[in-house]
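Tokens as discussed.
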């Protein structure tokens, strides 16, 4: 019998507070399984391992379901085939998956790959969880993954491959850049403003116009949405400046609500680099 020790986020389970610099997925997973533990601080190691396995399966199912129905169904079928799960296990998996979707819906770009249970000097149990961005996980699945242990001391898990490995890859295995992107497509309100300035009599067909902005490669939807909310006016002004550099003609008192009324905003998380030279800024 071991006492479970982990760094838990403050506050209720329904309101996890991610750290902007580093997210502890060990803590998130422990929060997910906590309602299903015995009502005391002493957790049998066998029970802990079982709940961690179920929690990882539920977490990944929820992530796959949010990303792609085929991936979700394939992963669900693989779990049923390998785990020999009974009805009690299936019921528990469904409950945990519902909890993941309800309480941790902002973390849908990261899969939980494995866990390790260790002890400190005081014989208290430490749970370490290895997480990986879903796009990196899928790319490694296609290429056979890495032989290096994710828990090996001083191991490099930056998911970088040297030039020799890149040369041996098939041409359809493309590197993923560490950026997200947002596609900005003007709506009718933007075109109404534009036509009043330039084309009051004969408005042109401009509905196909759209631009792409690269964003920091955050791991969660919530972080990406927050970044756009904080920086929407930079994008707004960039779109206005692209057509008219006279700021006096720009709408005043621009808000995020106005931004979403003037532009369609679509976030993309998987960006593949097909060029063989570095990106340059102008």
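Sequence:
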């Amino acid at each position: 019998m071991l006492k479970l020790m982990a760094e838990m986020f403050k506050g209720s389970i329904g309101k996890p507070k991610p750290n902007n610099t580093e997210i502890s997925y060990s803590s998130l997973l422990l929060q997910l399984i906590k309602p299903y533990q015995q009502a005391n601080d002493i957790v049998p190691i066998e029970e802990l391992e079982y709940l961690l396995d179920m929690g990882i399966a539920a977490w990944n199912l929820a992530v796959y379901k949010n990303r792609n129905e085929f991936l979700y169904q394939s992963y669900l079928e693989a779990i049923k085939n390998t785990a020999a799960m009974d009805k009690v296990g299936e019921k528990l998996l469904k409950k945990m998956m519902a909890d993941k979707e309800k309480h941790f819906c902002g973390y849908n770009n990261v899969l939980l790959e494995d866990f390790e249970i260790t002890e400190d000097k005081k014989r208290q149990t430490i749970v370490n969880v290895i997480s990986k961005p879903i796009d990196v996980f899928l790319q490694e699945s296609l290429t056979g993954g890495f032989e290096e242990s994710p828990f090996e001391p001083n191991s490099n898990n930056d998911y970088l491959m040297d030039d020799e490995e890149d040369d041996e890859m098939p041409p359809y295995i493309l590197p993923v850049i560490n950026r997200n992107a947002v596609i900005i497509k003007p709506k009718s309100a933007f075109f109404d403003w534009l036509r009043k300035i330039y084309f009051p009599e004969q408005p042109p067909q401009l509905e196909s116009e759209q631009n792409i902005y690269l964003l920091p490669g955050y791991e969660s939807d919530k972080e990406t949405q927050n970044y756009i909310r904080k920086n929407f006016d930079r994008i707004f002004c960039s779109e206005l400046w692209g057509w008219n550099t006279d700021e006096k003609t720009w709408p005043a008192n621009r808000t995020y609500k106005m931004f979403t009324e003037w532009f369609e905003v679509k976030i993309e998380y998987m960006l593949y680099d097909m060029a063989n030279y570095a990106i340059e800024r102008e």
